[in-house]
Amino acid sequence: MTTVKFGTTVTLPSDTEIAMSRSFDAPASLVWKAFTTPELLRRWLLGPDGWDMPICEVDLRVGGQWRYGWAQPDGSGAFEMHGEYTEVTPHSRIVNTEIFEDNPPAVSTVEFVEVDGQTTMTTTMRLVSQEARDAVLATGMADGAGRSYERLGEVLATL
Predict the structure, then answer these.
(1) Are 16 and 130 within 8 A, CB to CB?
(2) β-strand partners of 149
């Protein structure tokens, strides 16, 4: 399966993985900064339009924790995710655990590959089973991630 959501390519590399890839007209160091700086994350990592990100905590180091929380502007629909960084290679790669509500933990790997000033960012989520992968896809997360990555491109253009 390959689909494109808001310019982001979504594939299923294995029975337990979801990969999302998008290229940006920016160097890897800038995409990395936008991906790891709370003030910038709050501008683009919002999923569908109309959401806010009142919680954005990043302790970017191996063993460091991260925590994100979203809500509608009136505070309704709030939800959170959190995890721990297990690999941090500046401007190149981040690996972290991801825990969302009562779901089994996932492992996310984000790679930043720059060629001629363009950076392709690929996020691969590895889940515990095909059923867990399919349940994540059924939430509409590919649409939300696609819109977020589209917004990331807009933010990068202002930096």
Answers:
(1) yes
(2) none
Enumerate the β-bridge partners of residue 84.
Answer: 65
Count the Cβ atoms, other than its own, within 10 Å of residue 115: 9
Strand, coil or helix: what is 64? coil
Q: Report angle CA 84, 14, 136 to the nearest 5 degrees.
A: 55
Q: Which residue type does 133 have? A: R
List Cβ neighbours of 88 (8 Å cut-off, separation of 6 or more): 60, 61, 62, 64, 94, 95
pLDDT at 5: 67
**Which pLDDT belongs to residue 58?**
98
What is the C-alpha separation between 47 and 143, in angstroms, rounded? Answer: 8
Contact 142, 10 (CB under 8 A): yes
CA distance 29 to 40: 14
pTM of the predicted model as reported, rounded to 2 decimal places: 0.92
All residue ranges of the chain with pLDDT < 70 are: 1, 5
Q: How far apart are CA 152 and CA 21, in angstroms?
A: 13
CA distance 127 to 107: 7
Q: Which long-range contacts (CB under 8 A, 24 or more apart) does 69-74 make?
A: 70/46
Look-up of token digits 């910038």: 40
